[in-house]
Amino acid sequence: MADPKGFMTTPRQEWPRRPVEERVRDWDEVYVPGALLPIISEQADRCMDCGVPFCHQACPLGNLIPDWNDLVSREDWRAASDRLHATNNFPEFTGRLCPAPCEAGCVLAINQPAVTIKNVECAIADRAWEEGFTPARPPERLSGKTVAVIGSGPTGLAAAQQLTRAGHTVAVYEKDDRIGGLMRYGIPAFKMEKRHLERRIGQMLAEGTRFRTSTAVGRDVPAAGLRGRYDAVVIATGATAWRELPVPGRELHGIHQAMEYLPLANRVCEGDLEVSPLSAAGKHVVIVGGGDTGADCLGTAVREGAASVTQLDIYAQPGAERDEDSDPWPTYPKIYRLSAAHEEARELRTAPAADADARLFAASTLRFTGDERGQVRSLHLTEVDERRLPLPGTGRALPADLVLLALGFSGPDREDGLIEQLGLALGPRGTIARDDGFATNVPGVFAAGDAARGQSLIVWAIAEGRAVAAAVDRYLTGSSRLPAPITPTDRPMTV
């Protein structure tokens, strides 16, 4: 420990966000540039160097958190980068996008604010790029084996990088015109600027990974033919089959899935479009769904200039403190959190119907009504009890010119024909079935990430990519030195 009393003498201080009025006028990241490094060494000093660090257990990557906290407190950035990259291919992604289950498992969090692990991770990753601590690591020799990775989200990229570094010739197939999956077109730039993604893609290209964009396997390339051309195939297409809302009026114009809306806004930022065809500008927007995707829609609609934005969450508003009976330490607690988007909505008063921020809790959609042209104009809702049953006399209507459905995902998309062409077996939840070694029922075909696990966090996606790479390496060569941080059956800590 650099400072044995740091956790007692230093209060938690997070990376400050830019003023709301400033940041909603652009698409840059919400944090104050350069404001993290001056505070991060003291924040790392708060780490207790626990004998049994539960942050390791809470993080599926097994990040060496006390190690790199100590190194940051001593400002040994090169060594900290080495420790961080030993377990995580893309810490600048997780440092910005992960909800930090490691902080929920921090021993200090039993009775104090946790160490700012996520901020320390982000600081190390950014400093590593600035100082040149992340050079390309091409293999010393090639194995002669070839692997196709289908999907370029965090799982696919992690698997591809690990397998390339192991000496295999890897090609990544992506149906969109740019690499990155949901990190490219699903995550708004104000949460993670795409330059971070471009930097890693450049590193992977220098290492020898090949990329095939605008290529949907199953539609543009026959899946069976692709399997015949490679020694192994990894399916990492994600869980992109969105859940529907079967209520009266769903057929009205102006009701769209979140993943129809967010990619268009991202394409505006990429320079592909001047204005999104689904822009929220001047419209009354209602978002159905209380998760992170809904919050992404909220921040996007605010920046597009919506007349109002309201977010519906079917669950009751959680408390500010952990419930020790239902969410005991070190599990990830269900508490009230104020994301950057909700902070913006609260300060700008985007939702007159909501109490504190843009959210209406314990609210369920009953139906939509529209005008004579078939355009949605109102969303009718009711309050619900803890069993999600309607409470009599609580019905009301919200003005709605644009409705965004952010209800999560049920499994991999079936439209491209990939699953049917390969004859892949599916599990009871509609995800791709696999054994304890990530192998599907088709020899030489492996499945990882949300396509097989189901909708999850980015940190689990990267862990899946690293673990499936070890399984494929073992299949191709008979053994593997690649790390496998998780198994297909591992799950987050719960009571």
TrEMBL record:
It comes from the Bacteria. The keyword Oxidoreductase applies. Pathway: Amino-acid biosynthesis. Keywords: Amino-acid biosynthesis, Glutamate biosynthesis, Oxidoreductase. The keyword Oxidoreductase applies. Pfam families: Fer4_20 (PF14691), Pyr_redox_2 (PF07992). Residues 36-69 form the 4Fe-4S ferredoxin-type domain. This is Glutamate synthase subunit beta. It comes from Streptomyces achromogenes.
